[in-house]
Amino acid sequence: MDGDVSYRDRIGTMTSEGKRAWVYPKKPEGRFYNYRTWLTYGLLAFLLFSPFIYVNGNQFLLFNFWEREFVIFGFPFWPQDFYLGVTAMIIGVLFITLFTAAFGRIFCGWICPQTIFMEMVFRKIEYWIEGDRGAQMRLDKQDWTSEKIRKKGFKWFLFFIISFIIANVFLAYLISSEKLLKYIQIGPFENLSTFVALIIFTGVFYFIFAWFREQVCTIACPYGRLQSVMLDRKSIVVAYNHKRGEREKGRSRFKKNEDRAELGKGDCIDCFQCVNVCPTGIDIRNGTQLECINCTACIDACDSIMEKVDLPKGLIGFYSEENIEKEERFTITPRMKGFAAILLVSVGLLSGMLIMRTDVEANILRLPGQLYEQKADNMISNVYTFKLINKTSGPFEDVRFKLLSHKGSIESVTHGSLVIPGKGLAEGTLFIELNSALLNGEKEKIEIGVYSGEKLIETTRTNFMGPRTFR
Ligand code: SF4
Ligand code: SF4
After folding, report:
1. 301 CB under 6 A from ligand 2?
2. Substitution site in 298, 302, 304, 315 for ligand 2 pocket (most atoms within 8 Å of beta carbon)
3. For the segment 84-119, what is each residue's pLDDT rounded down to a tens digit?
4. What angle do CA 15, 116, 68 make, to 5 degrees?
5. Phi, psi of 420 (to 5 degrees)
6. In Å, what is the CA distance from 410 to each residue of 116, 405, 413?
């Protein structure tokens, strides 16, 4: 970014004329960057391969909104499981809120796919082709020589190819990898609408990673905006220890053999390395800012400077405002323990709901408009419609119904043995007969078991109507 930018006047990625100040972050190096790189390998593998991994015949992750088919970690979810989705979303919001309140925007710098692709894929290609910060700035300033055309052309070509690959993977999450591979085999023009969607996605990814870049995090992402209301003085964020960095006389350039503490000078030697390395173009020394994605690149940069000038590391580090004011080190506070406990309970609740979720959903309802039929020997008959939804990918064969709560007969009207196909449903009609002596009123609750062979796969309840005189 250009040197005249002052955070207090305007945002870091804008010039005084209101134009975009292109950010040329210096290539980060150091302990945290190494941790991030290793984490990124794992996350990239997860993001790229998840739609191509199958568990029990189900895609590992699938979000097919058009056909309302969702698979999370190999478990298929149906619109009937909506309550689980809502619970998971509430827990997700709770998690993000509590996590951000405790640890700031660390998700953005370490886990968010935008940062992973931008900083660990596209940015690395840029360093490889155009060089580090200084070389990139020089290249952009120079005329369109053959060297510049070659470098820029090659970089944009690679960016396009990677955007195209990401768009394909994105599509595999939406329509399933099986369909995607089938469409690739039969050719793009056989399914033009999907191909157009693929090109649009490619264009969007290319636009984001080649041009829009850090602006996703600084001006577009709603989570970044929310940060300002979630953080407080106890939140642990990437922060500059201004007490140590400034002392009484403020920051100043490094001079050999000078006792800075004695002279009242801060430990910050005003080298601007933390600013040069920042992918969102801010100066962390101005305090916690909305644009900071907690990527820790400035910690690495400052630590390496501190090492060189023989001062203790950690001038920039993970601190809360209170840590800095009270000159304490990072500790796990009761507040964090409380947040962790709330999260643990919510995640436990969701896990319990997931474990208790059955593979089959049964709906048995009395046929609308029908009362009951009085038969010989005091028998009463009711007619029902049933709908059985199979949430697994394999079929359930030889499906039968049994009355669990009462003695009586139950019979389904089907042609041959009843089968619920994988990821499908079976519908039909049922007749239930009970002896009127067993009824306690005109509306009796009965429980029905659904079996596949001898295995109970679901239980459900419904009403049985009888004559009013039996109350
Ligand atoms: S890298 Fe450290 S010493 Fe250099 S300007 Fe930033 S805070 Fe100061
Ligand atoms: S201020 Fe530091 S942690 Fe925040 S985005 Fe910039 S380099 Fe990353």
Report:
1. no
2. 298
3. 888 888 888 888 777 787 778 888 999 999 999 999
4. 110
5. -105, 110
6. 58, 12, 10
